[in-house]
Structure formats: C-alpha cells, structure tokens
Amino acid sequence: MIRVVIVFFVAFLFCSEKNIHTFKNNINEGYSVKYKQDNIMTFEIPGMGEVRQGGNRVQHLEYLGKQGEFFLVRSTLSKITSINVLGGKVKSDYDSQIINNIPCLLYIDMNGDIDHLEAEQEYMEDIFKTEYMSLSIANYIYPFGKNAVDVSIGDSWIEAKDSIPIFLDDSGAESKMSISSTYTLDKIKNKKGINIAYISEISTVNCEFIMSINGEYMEGLQTGTFNSAYRFDIDNGELIRDSTSGKTLGELTWTDVSFTTHTYFSSSVKKMK
Questions:
Q1: Which residues make beta-bridge pairs with 61?
Q2: Are the beta carbons of 114 and 164 closer than 8 angstroms?
Q3: What sign does the CA torsion over 214, 218, 224, 225 have?
Q4: Angstrom distance (rounded) from CA 249 to CA 261
Q5: 10 inside domain
Q6: Whole-number percent of the chain with pLDDT over 70
Q7: Of 130, 131, 158, 171, which is the most exposed, with the fewest CB atoms less than 10 Å away?
Q8: Cα(66)–Cα(73) distance, rounded to whole angstroms?
Q9: What is the DSSP string of 220-258?
Q10: pLDDT band at residue 174, thresholds of 50, 70 and 90?
Q11: Could you tell me which of 238, 226, 234 has the C-alpha nearest to residue 201?
C-alpha cells in the first residue's frame, strides 16, 4: 500500500511539472529567426485631417551571444514598405529606404530590454530608434515579462513598466510610456509534436507624447488600452505569432492649438519559415 502511494505521488509530481511552464526566448549564440511585421497608427488633427503611419517589413534577428553586461542581437530590416499620409498627402519613405537591408546592433540588458543600439552610420540611429524603440516594444528575453514563471493553463500574471523611453519619429525627441499588462495562459495545443501556448494580454497605457508633424512638435498625454493575442513555441522558445490592437485618447497641443483625439493602433508579427 505504501509503495502504491509513493508511485502515485511521484506520478502526480511528474504530471504537475509537465503542466507548468516558464516562458523565455531562445537567446543561444548562433540562433536566428525571421518575422514578417505589419503595423498602422491613425489619428485626426484639426485643420489637417487624418494622419496614417505604419507599414510592413521583414525582420531578421541573429543572436550573437553575450558582450560584457549585454546580450548582442543583430537585427536587419528588409522589404520595407512605409505608409506616411498627412491630411491626404503622401510623404516620402526616404528614411525607411536608408535602413533597408542595413544591420543594426541591439544591446539587450538582463531584463530583455534594449539599452541602446548602434548603426553603421551615426545619422541612422534616430531612424532605427523609431523601428526598435517605439510603441511596439519587444522584450528579447522575456516575451511575457519576468513573472511568466511556473505558469499553468488559466493562470494570469501582471507586468508593469514605468517611464519607458520611446521614439515616435526620427527627430530624436523622446516620449515616455508607462504600461501595466495582465497576461493569461489560455490554452496549450500540440501541433505536429510541438507544444504551442496561446497567451492573451490586456494592457493599460499612459504616454507622455511628443512627435514632430511637419516640423512642429505635437505634445500631450495619451491614455488607453491594448489587447494582444500570442502563440508561443514552448519547446523551441520562440514567438510564432502576435496580433495587437488598441485605442488611446489624447489631450494634445500642436501649433499652439489644443485638441482631443483618438489614436488607433494595430500590428501583427508572424514567424517566417
């Protein structure tokens, strides 16, 4: 009888361990992955009309190992197509073409965030910041935060970050964003022998917003919510898909005119074969 109880207890522990998960990206030296990315942001400016900014691109990430206190990742954007429409007028995508197929080195800190980046030419760095340090913030080690540890199906966890520096244009002007996210592990499916986690996220966002429009800075406070759905390859430690949408309400000033506007965001990321 005692032997039966012991066997049952060991089996229970084994099953329990199999049903809990810790989510972390594969950051092994030599690992590489490609993603197709799409994003769009729209809002209205009184007297000008609709502003639409976004586009699509392919991102190739190559993990180069650790250098001092940082993990080094080489990121290359290619096949860049930009959308930049101001009040019905299409602006040039010259900046995007400057960085097309040009690698950039990302210095990732121990928390998985970009500490700084380096470009081949210094003048490219402000352009790269709008790609890598903007509203679509990626964590290169902990895709769902450092609290995604020993998680079971149905569990939720909270991640919060304050005063994250972000760059909304290539002027170098720094906005600050604070975000609080609740993640939930909704389910796990086995597809062709690979365990895929389905994770949802609901976020509240506050952003001290500054952005150059036609040479004049638009400033103010944006607040809103975002919803995201992810698929994550548990066995290989890599994101498969990310779909995000959100809306903010902004109290903004531009050319000495104060106004209120809604900003709408949507983005998608999909791993390429």
A1: 33, 75
A2: no
A3: positive
A4: 6
A5: no
A6: 93
A7: 158
A8: 9
A9: EEEEEEEEEEEEEETTTTEEEEEEEEEEEEEEEEETTEE
A10: confident
A11: 226
In angstroms, rounded to a whole number, what is the distance separating the alpha carbons of residues 177 and 209? Answer: 8
Do 217 and 210 meet the contact criterion of CB atoms below 8 Å apart?
yes
DSSP structural state of residue 123 = G
Q: What size, in residues, is the chain? A: 273
- Classify residue 15: in a domain, yes or no: no
Q: Tell me which amino acid residue 61 is.
A: L
Nearest-Å Rg of the Cα atoms of the chain is: 21
Do residues 74 and 62 touch, judged by C-beta distance below 8 A?
Answer: yes
Yes or no: say if 99 and 105 are a contact pair by the CB < 8 Å rule: no
Residue 106 CB partners (closer than 8 Å, separation 6+): 72, 73, 74, 75, 114, 117, 132, 140
Residue located via tokens 């498969």: 240
pLDDT digits (tens, 9 = 90+) for 96-107: 888 999 999 999
Residue 33: closest CA among 57, 52, 60, 51:
60
As to burial, measured by CB atoms within 10 angstroms (0-12 exposed, 13-18 middle, 19+ buried), residue 137 is: middle
Contacts of 210 (CB under 8 A, 6+ apart): 168, 173, 174, 175, 217, 218, 219
Looking at residue 119, which CATH number applies to its domain? 2.30.230
The answer to whether 151 touches 178, Cβ cutoff 8 Å, is: no
Q: What is the pTM of this model?
A: 0.87
Tens of pLDDT, residue by residue over 16-42, are 445 899 999 999 999 999 999 999 999
Count of domains in the chain?
A: 1
Q: Is residue 37 part of a domain?
A: yes
**Diameter of the chain measured on Cα atoms:** 82
